[in-house]
Amino acid sequence: MPVTADPPPASDSAAQARPPVPAESEAEAAEAKRSGGAARAFAAIKGLAGLTLLSRVLGFVRDMLMATALGAGLIADAFFLAWMIPNLFRRLFGDGAFSAALVPVFVEAREAGDHAGAQSLVSGALWRLVTGLGVLVLILELGCFALTAEPGRVFLEGSLGVTAFAKVATVLDLLRFLLPYLVLICAAGLLGGALNALDRFAVPALAPVVFNAVWIAGLLVSGVMFTETLPRVRFLALCLLGGGVIQLLMHTVAMKRAGVPVERTWRTDPERLTRVKSLFFSLAFGLALFQLNALFDGLIAYAFVPEGGVSSLYYGNRLVQLPIGVLGVALSTAVFPELARLAKREDFIGLGKLLDRGVLLGAFVALPAAAGLAALAGPIVSTLFERGAFDAASAARTAKIVLCLTPAVVAACVTPVVTRAFYAEEEVKTPVRVGAACVVLNLLLNLLLVGPMGAAGLALATSVSQTTNLILQVWLYRKRRVSRGDIPATLRVLGQGLGYTALSVLMGLAAWQVERVLPGPAPVRLVVAILTGVVIYAGVCGALKVEPLRLLLSRGRRP
Question: Could you give phi then psi for residue 519, rounded to 5 degrees?
Fold first, then answer.
């Protein structure tokens, strides 16, 4: 007698009546979900890149005014070195380790439907960050005062000499004005990470635009109010503090409009906070080494390179930061929340596909940007900065630095995407260890190259170490994908990357030749050369219908 199952309960009869969902349909639904998330992520890049481009344009206006007013001398060097300190903490705490540690845990809480828990996590983390940094700023302010007052001044003058102490004292004087900015910008950066995780990208991208506008206004007003350089720079530092307050207010209001208002509370889920702390400390170790190494670049230039070395490094970095900021930051910012969502769903196939597209898109834009900067470094620097106190020698020194930094453009655009894939899986040890090794490599190369090459040697060391970082991270993440059965399309990605490289080299040579032989004023020749390069690269890629161009032109529909 055959055994039959008991009839299902009445409450389950409707469910039993439904036909089973074919595995193919489930796979199609998963693929549609992946594609929709990827499309939204890549569509967000255009808006982010547009606002970032506006910020960078204002940044160039700002730097042109700075170069005209300050040149590349002692006070300019002191200001840029002092400005590195709050920016070091911003990259470490604000939009660096703390923000990267918060996003995966915040996304997980939102994915689980615990919106109140996600809100309390942001508020609790924010107030802990503000309190800790406030205490740090107070200690550093007291340190600056102690080193420039008796008996610290006497000790430093005896140890360093009167001339060297005067340089140090100028840096400390400006640092006293700029230190509070680090609390403001780190708090804004943390909220910016939460807004990005909510797919609210506009305010975090718009805030630097507003800040640059404040900087420009401060420069113009200070030029009218003061005739001496040091009082002018002190007034500018106060304006930058005001810009920090505005940025923080913008992010606070945006969080409220997103339905996640910041509360004055330390209360939050201890387990989630512990995970954020654990991720933060792991990330902070690597980022701290990296940021300290950037500071050491400035200190080495300040100590071993003739006057103007720090300023030339700053202006050279500003030029290469244009493609890095417009694409690299926008790309990693846009894809990180979606990478985190895919990791939380354990959809590693989708994560790998999104990563491959992100890497190719980064290379697609970064390679021609690097080639163009290398081909036109001299004309670009001269056109933008060579006026007033920024003379031809300063322009030539800066152009050499730009040339040595161009390989870093590709690495700095692509590496954050790979790093964010690690972070999305809450695997932070691998990128931290790789970064730490590359920091040591960078420092060793700095010491080897600064003697024979000056500031350009520091730039070349940066390019070598960042390229090494990219290669190692790609290789190690590929091993991670292979170990779980997700075989990456390495040859296809590499082949397309080599194709973009060859086309970028040809584009750069054409732009260089046009600028060299075309008659007319230098700015006109430069513009025509750039447009020639853009037309060649975009035209060939459009004719071949390459995928990255299609992603950039898409409007958020399924790719």
Answer: -80, 165
Question: What are phi and psi for residue 18, nearest 5 degrees?
Answer: -70, 140
The answer to whether 155 touches 135, Cβ cutoff 8 Å, is no
Between CA 171 and CA 140 the distance in angstroms is 13
The 10 Å CB-count burial string (b at 16+, else e) for 325-340 is bbbbbbbbbbbbbbbb
How many Å apart are CA 483 and CA 472, to the nearest integer? 17
Interatomic CA distance for residues 174 and 223, integer angstroms: 17
- For residue 387, what are its two tokens? 């006026």
Q: CA 262, CA 138: separation in Å to the nearest integer?
A: 24
Rounded Cα distance between 19 and 22, Å, is 9
Phi-psi region of 347 (alpha: psi -120 to 50; beta: other; left: phi over 0): beta
Query: Cis omega before residue 519 (within 30°)?
Result: no
Q: Which residues pair with 390 in a beta bridge?
A: 387
From first to last of the 559 residues of the chain, give the pLDDT tens digit: 444 333 333 334 344 444 454 545 555 555 555 555 555 666 666 667 677 778 878 887 888 788 777 766 678 788 888 888 888 777 766 566 677 778 788 888 887 888 888 888 888 888 888 998 999 999 999 988 888 777 767 666 666 665 666 778 888 888 888 999 989 988 998 898 888 888 888 898 899 899 999 999 998 998 888 878 788 888 999 999 999 999 999 999 999 998 888 888 777 888 888 888 777 776 666 566 666 666 677 777 776 776 667 777 878 887 887 777 677 677 777 777 788 888 888 888 888 888 888 888 888 989 999 999 999 998 998 888 777 667 788 888 889 999 999 988 888 888 888 988 888 887 878 888 898 888 889 889 988 998 888 888 888 998 999 899 999 999 999 998 888 877 776 777 888 889 999 999 999 999 999 998 888 888 899 999 999 999 999 899 888 888 887 777 765 444 3
The DSSP-derived string for 187-254 is HHHHHHHHHHHTT--HHHHHHHHHHHHHHHHHHHHHHHH-SSHHHHHHHHHHHHHHHHHHHHHHHHHH
